[in-house]
Specification:
Layout lengths: L4 H47 L2 H4 L5 H13 L4 H27 L6 E12 L4 E2 L5 E5 L8 E19 L6 E20 L2 H8 L1 H62 L3 H18 L16 H14 L4 E4 L11 H17 L4 E9 L2 E8 L33 H11 L3 E7 L3 E9 L3
Parallel strand pairs: 6-7
Antiparallel strand pairs: 1-2, 1-3, 1-5, 4-5, 7-8, 8-10, 9-10
Helix pairs in contact: 1-5, 1-6, 6-7, 8-9, 9-10
């Protein structure tokens, strides 16, 4: 079953959307794989910073200082706000140094990386008491992390024995007692590659452009293929019409020849022979336009008498048509009789076929050119049809139905003759207002 043109569009649209989906999936996979690769390299380079806390803890709170602060917090010697303030002040002091250090690692790679370490919770093991209400930042680079990723996390256990003074109830003496303080500290390091999307996009630009070019190329190829398919379907339709018209045109002369032959079988008759001769010529005239004539073109220019005879015969064949023509007694026409006849008969026939009741013909010499104009008051030609009217086998349609007989070769032959004489032809037409053909052919006096 033959598919209609719109079905090809639907099928292509579905397949094209599937292809876009596949390409999008592959691009997204590549995008995420590239991001993971960058994150992995970033973690690797940041790992040694997190593993060697001494790089920054000396400027912050080292483990011994931190434990002392935690004991003071438990004993009530300092408040939680004072502990947080201590960390905050020391973090600010080292922020610039840390930022410079991280930038020195990643700036050459085009990456903008932010880093921070924070204490999530401090648990006093003696009583299982949670000492923090919110995380405390230990150190960080400039700026805030919007979408932080975990670099590492872990628990740090610390304990210390502290001598405390005790007083017996029955004595005045004061003794020192050893008390052990044990803490569990949950810490986490986070990082963010701020410009990772832009970096990945730049690295995948070539792949993205190639994908877009492939998709555009597919659309272009489908468009051209679809256009060619429509042209082929149009030509096939024109050829079918041509064959039908030829068949119609051949029926009458063939039938006439059959009758004439039967008459000749009974009795030879010069009149019958003349009829047969005319019908054979009619058959020849019907078939001749289907191929280019293989004979030398006559160099003898048509005479004004031949032109007058041609127009007179045409008027006799169409008595209802009103003809107007300028005086051509002094006009010189650079065409032989065959070319001139082909041009005028085809142009005038077309005018009458498409509703003309008036024909205005003008032939003048203007400087070194012969200008010919055929103007009618017929139904006209729509603008979309005009670029195609000189194509071989093309016939103007009305409501997608050919309502006039013909082979679609008349204007094709006219255009060939004009081109062969290095002239040009222009068409001006409006629907229901008629059509004008202007032909200009070089002519040397």
């Amino acid at each position: 079953m033959e598919l209609k043109s719109k079905n090809y569009i639907y099928i292509f649209a579905i397949l094209f959307l599937v292809l876009i989906g596949i390409q999008t999936y592959l691009l997204m996979n590549s995008f995420h794989l590239k991001k993971r690769e960058i994150y992995s390299k970033t973690k690797e380079k940041l790992g040694h910073i997190d593993d060697t806390d001494a790089l920054f803890d000396n400027d912050l709170l080292n483990n011994q200082d931190a434990t002392a602060y935690y004991i003071n917090l438990v004993q009530g010697k300092i408040t939680l706000a004072q502990l947080e303030n201590s960390y905050s002040e020391k973090a600010k002091r080292t922020q610039h140094v840390l930022t410079h250090y991280v930038d020195s690692i990643f700036a050459p790679l085009g990456l903008e990386v932010k880093l921070q370490k924070e204490i999530l919770q401090i648990t006093f093991k003696n009583t299982e008491q949670k000492l923090l209400n919110k995380p405390i930042v230990v150190y960080k680079t400039n700026g805030n992390l919007i979408h932080p990723l975990e670099l590492s996390s872990g628990t740090w256990a610390t304990e210390r024995t502290v001598k405390q003074l005790t007083k017996e109830e029955s004595a005045i003496t004061v003794e020192q007692e050893d008390k052990q303080y044990s803490f569990l500290v949950l810490r986490r390091s986070s990082f963010e590659v701020v410009n990772i999307n832009w970096i990945v996009f730049k690295e995948l630009t070539f792949l993205l452009l190639n994908t877009l070019l492939i998709l555009i190329a597919l659309i272009f190829l489908f468009y051209k293929t679809y256009q060619n398919l429509k042209k082929q379907q149009k030509k096939i339709g024109q050829l079918h019409d041509t064959v039908d018209n030829i068949s119609h045109e051949l029926k009458t002369p063939i039938a006439t020849l059959k009758v004439a032959l039967k008459t000749l079988e009974k009795q030879p008759d010069p009149t019958t022979i003349a009829v047969m001769t005319r019908q054979v010529e009619r058959l020849e005239q019907t078939l001749n336009p289907l191929h280019e004539p293989e004979k030398e073109i006559s160099n003898t220019l048509i005479s004004n008498y031949q032109i007058a005879t041609l127009l007179s015969d045409f008027k006799l064949a169409h008595p209802d048509i009103q003809f107007e023509m300028n005086d051509i007694s002094t006009v010189s026409i650079p065409l032989n009789d065959i070319d001139f006849t082909t041009i005028f008969v085809n142009l005038m026939d077309n005018s009458i076929k498409y509703g003309a009741t008036k024909l205005h013909i003008s032939i003048i010499n203007d400087q070194n050119r012969c200008k010919i104009q055929v103007r009618d008051n017929g139904i006209g030609i729509i603008q979309e049809e005009i670029p195609h009217i000189f194509e071989k086998f093309y016939r103007i349609q009305k409501n997608n139905i050919h309502d006039t007989k013909g082979l679609g070769l008349g204007l094709y032959l006219v255009n060939n003759i004009v081109n062969r004489h290095q002239g040009n032809i222009q068409v001006n037409s409006k629907q229901n207002q008629g059509t004008t053909f202007n032909i200009s052919i070089p002519h040397e006096h």
